[in-house]
Amino acid sequence: MRHIKWILAISMVICAEQTSATSQDDRVLPPMAFTLFCTRYPVECNPQAGTQQAVDRFDFAALWHQLNVVNTAVNTSITPTSATDAMDLNWQIFPQEGNCADYAVTKRHLLLNAGWASSALLLAEVVIRKTGEHHLVLIVKEDGDYLVLDNRRPAIIKLLQALRDYSIVRAQSDGTSRLWTRGLT
Questions:
Q1: What DSSP string runs through the chain?
Q2: Which of 4, 8, 93, 124 would you call most buried, defined as having the most Cβ atoms within 10 angstroms of its Cβ?
Q3: What is the pLDDT of residues 111-120, one digit of tens each?
Q4: Domain span at residue 6?
Q5: CATH number of the domain where residue 141 is located
């Protein structure tokens, strides 16, 4: 119980951080699992991780290829666990089997290591409209577009297409990776 109070206190401090891109009313607590993930993998939550801008390194075809390679590799290397395990508190990078969060953080990890800026790689909790199930995806901001990398789909799609099936509950802020907002900033 003491650890839970400590984690909640940290979450409140994280959400209290000031950012010019997000209004006070849009800020929300990050998922508890994200807070725990950041204590286990602090480098993954460092806003300075992957500081190179992808656009400076590649042309669009190369960017698209890199995103597809990562999306396909992760989608095929992790064995999915049952849907009842979705959004559990133990997010892991490179598990043998896992849920949507494990897929999303593994994709983000690989792209950060490839030099993508953390501000371009946003985890987002969504609700599947048909079932009401909570689900985690990785949203990649690239040249004004939002692309969704999702373990439920073999191909990367634009956010507008994904919003036909999902509604965003909360997403990482592009200004501060530990800050989450009601939508995308």
A1: -HHHHHHHHHHHHHHH---TTS-GGGEEPPPHHHHHHHHH-GGGG-TTTT-S-HHHH--HHHHHHHHHHHHHHHHHHSEE--GGGTT-S---SS-SEE-HHHHHHHHHHHHHHTT--GGGEEEEEEEETTT--EEEEEEEEETTEEEEE-TT-SS-EEHHHHTTTEEEEEEE-SS-TT-EESS--
A2: 124
A3: 999 989 888 9
A4: 2-181
A5: 3.10.620
